[in-house]
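Need residues for this backbone.
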C-alpha cells in the first residue's frame, strides 16, 4: 500500500468589519405619518429630517429650505437620501451638487403606490389622489398658495371626477378633513386600501 502524502494549503482569512456610513434622510413632511409608523412598527433606525409639506407650492421657498438642509448635513462620509418627488424643476441639479440620491418617484403619490397604479386609477376617472399626508396638510398648502400668489385653488378641480383617498388602515385619517376637502372641491370621495410595502421598498432601494 502506497503512502499518500497530502498537502494542505492553509489560508489565513482576515475579517474586515465594515463601518457603516451614516445616512441622513431628508423628507417632505407629506410622508411624516407613514414614516413615523415604519420607524415605530418596523424598528427601523432611519435618521429622518422632515421639511414642511407646504413648501412645494412655492418653488423659491422649497429650494431655499432644501439647499439649507443639504448644506447642514452634507459631510464627508455621510450619505444623503432624499424622499421627494420631482417637486422642483431643478431638484436633480440641486441634489447632484451634494451627491444626494432621490427615490424613483415623480411625486408623493407614485412613491406610495407606484406610477402604474396611479395611471390605472386615473384612467377609470380623472382623480385627485389624497394620502394621509395630503389630508393633514391640504389647508396649510392652500393657505400658503393663497397668501403667496392669491391663487384660487378651487379652479384646480374643474376637470376632476372624484377624490381617491389611499387608506393604509395603520395611519389614522382625519375624517373631518376629508369631508372638508370634498366640500371644498365639490367632488365625491372613494377609498382604496393600500399597504406601505411599495413605499418602504422604494426607500430601501436608495
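Answer:
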Amino acid at each position: 500500500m502506497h503512502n499518500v502524502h497530502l498537502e494542505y494549503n492553509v489560508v489565513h482569512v482576515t475579517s474586515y468589519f465594515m463601518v457603516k456610513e451614516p445616512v441622513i434622510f431628508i423628507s417632505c413632511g407629506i410622508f411624516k405619518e407613514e414614516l413615523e409608523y415604519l420607524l415605530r412598527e418596523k424598528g427601523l433606525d432611519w435618521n429622518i429630517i422632515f421639511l414642511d409639506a407646504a413648501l412645494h407650492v412655492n418653488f423659491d421657498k422649497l429650494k431655499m429650505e432644501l439647499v439649507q438642509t443639504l448644506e447642514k448635513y452634507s459631510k464627508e462620509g455621510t450619505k444623503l437620501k432624499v424622499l421627494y418627488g420631482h417637486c422642483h424643476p431643478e431638484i436633480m441639479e440641486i441634489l447632484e451638487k451634494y451627491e444626494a440620491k432621490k427615490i424613483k418617484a415623480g411625486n408623493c403619490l407614485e412613491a406610495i403606490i407606484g406610477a402604474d397604479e396611479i395611471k390605472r386609477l386615473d384612467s377609470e376617472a380623472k382623480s385627485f389622489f389624497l394620502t394621509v399626508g395630503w389630508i393633514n396638510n391640504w389647508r396649510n398648502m392652500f393657505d400658503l398658495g393663497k397668501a403667496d400668489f392669491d391663487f384660487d385653488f378651487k379652479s384646480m378641480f374643474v376637470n376632476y371626477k372624484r377624490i381617491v383617498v389611499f387608506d393604509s388602515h395603520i395611519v389614522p385619517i382625519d375624517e373631518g378633513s376629508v369631508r372638508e376637502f370634498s366640500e371644498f372641491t365639490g367632488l365625491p370621495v372613494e377609498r382604496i386600501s393600500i399597504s406601505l410595502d411599495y413605499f418602504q421598498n422604494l426607500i430601501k432601494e436608495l
